[in-house]
């Protein structure tokens, strides 16, 4: 950790490649406080992951138990790659950092890394190190303080009796996801999303889930999670829309928009100032639906890269 404290003195905030750092900049949060938040987050990361550093870069990685169980091979994730903006050494330092990481993670068969769309140096370093891009994500923001919502009578809070219906929907509808796009994970993408939907409803992947009903049939679900830490540190209460799915037979009938709008209503009721959601850049239907529901602007973009061995 000796170099990380020194790096914080020279790094631009633009170097921090992944949430929860960038979306906070849109709320007027002071850059120095964001750096302090990142440092605290990294120190906490030591208890559950690994920090790699050199003279001009640092990175965080962690083994992924859930993904490993779902896909049947050892999976890891690089959460952060950051370093100096000095063009003379930026590429070299990141290449060296990734080499260190790949050495530490050689027991893993599948490794992912999400990087901001504008971080060209890190993207190029990943590609030169053998990673390939499999996904691109947009982050959208809704200012809940400016909006009014009406409760939707056809949407209710989910309970454990809804798990099977939500899992059945999730098995087939997420064909824009990175799990589907990557040929290696595609065979089990439906299992992954079904389990994710279940976890949202039972409360391990989300704070709460809701379901939409037409007649006696569940036609879709949504879920959210509130970031309490941002409230404590920055005075901004932010809710994340975690996962939204609509039965394929009911797509195009407005249920996605209604589910997201109801999620925003609940987040506002729970005193959230803002809401954030992400989706794939090519999922135009979802983007338009989220905009109709109340999301106003795209605040960030990121790309997901993966590295594989032994597969």
The Rg value, from CA coordinates, equals 20 Å
Strands of the biggest beta sheet: in what spatial order?
1-2-3-4-11-5-10-9-8-7-6
Mean pLDDT: 88
Number of domains: 2
| Order of helical and strand elements | HHEEHEHEHEEHHHEEHEHEHE
Strand content: 25-35%
User: Which CATH class of the largest domain?
Assistant: Alpha Beta
Global morphology: globular
Q: At the third CATH level, what is the topology name of the largest domain?
A: Aminopeptidase
Describe the structure.
The protein has helices spanning 2-7, 31-45, 65-71, 90-104, 120-128, 163-173, 178-181, 189-202, 228-234, 255-269, 284-293; strands at residues 50-53, 57-63, 75-83, 110-116, 132-143, 155-157, 208-214, 217-227, 238-246, 274-280, 297-308. With 311 residues, the chain is an alpha+beta fold. The protein folds into 2 domains: 2-130, 3-Layer(aba) Sandwich (Aminopeptidase), CATH 3.40.630; 142-300, Gcn5-related N-acetyltransferase (GNAT) (Aminopeptidase, 3-Layer(aba) Sandwich), CATH 3.40.630. Strands 1-2-3-4-11-5-10-9-8-7-6 form an 11-stranded mixed β-sheet, sandwiched between helices. Helix 4 crosses helix 5, helix 6 (163-173) packs antiparallel against helix 8 and helix 10 crosses helix 11 (284-293). The model has no long low-confidence stretch (mean pLDDT 88).
Could you give a short description of this structure?
This protein has helices spanning 2-7, 31-45, 65-71, 90-104, 120-128, 163-173, 178-181, 189-202, 228-234, 255-269, 284-293; strands at residues 50-53, 57-63, 75-83, 110-116, 132-143, 155-157, 208-214, 217-227, 238-246, 274-280, 297-308.
């Amino acid at each position: 950790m000796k170099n990380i404290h020194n790096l914080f003195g020279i790094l631009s905030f633009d170097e921090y490649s992944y949430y929860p750092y960038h979306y906070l900049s849109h709320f007027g949060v002071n850059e120095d406080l964001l750096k302090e938040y990142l440092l605290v987050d990294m120190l906490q990361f030591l208890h559950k992951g690994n920090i790699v550093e050199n003279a001009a870069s640092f990175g965080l990685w962690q083994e992924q138990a859930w993904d490993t169980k779902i896909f049947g091979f050892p999976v890891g994730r690089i959460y952060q790659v950051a370093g100096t903006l000095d063009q003379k050494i930026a590429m070299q330092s990141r290449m060296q950092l990734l080499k260190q990481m790949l050495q530490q993670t050689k027991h893993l068969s599948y490794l992912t890394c999400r990087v901001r769309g504008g971080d060209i140096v890190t993207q190029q370093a990943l590609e030169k190190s053998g990673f390939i891009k499999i996904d691109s994500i947009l982050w959208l923001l809704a200012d809940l303080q400016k909006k009014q919502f009406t409760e939707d009578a056809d949407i209710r809070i989910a309970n454990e009796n809804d798990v099977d219906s939500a899992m059945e929907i999730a098995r087939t509808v997420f064909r824009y996801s990175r799990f589907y796009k990557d040929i290696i994970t595609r065979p089990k993408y439906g299992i992954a999303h079904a389990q994710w939907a279940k976890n949202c409803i039972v409360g391990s992947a989300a704070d709460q889930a809701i379901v939409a009903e037409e007649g006696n049939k569940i036609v879709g679900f949504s879920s959210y999670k509130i970031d309490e830490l941002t409230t404590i540190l920055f005075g901004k209460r932010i809710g994340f829309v975690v996962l939204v799915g609509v039965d394929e037979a009911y797509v195009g009938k407005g249920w996605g928009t209604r589910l997201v709008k109801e999620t925003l209503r609940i987040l506002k009721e729970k005193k959230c100032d803002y809401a954030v959601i992400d989706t794939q850049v090519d999922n135009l239907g979802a983007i338009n639906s989220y905009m109709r529901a109340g999301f106003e602007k795209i605040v960030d973009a990121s790309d997901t890269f993966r590295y594989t061995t032994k597969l």
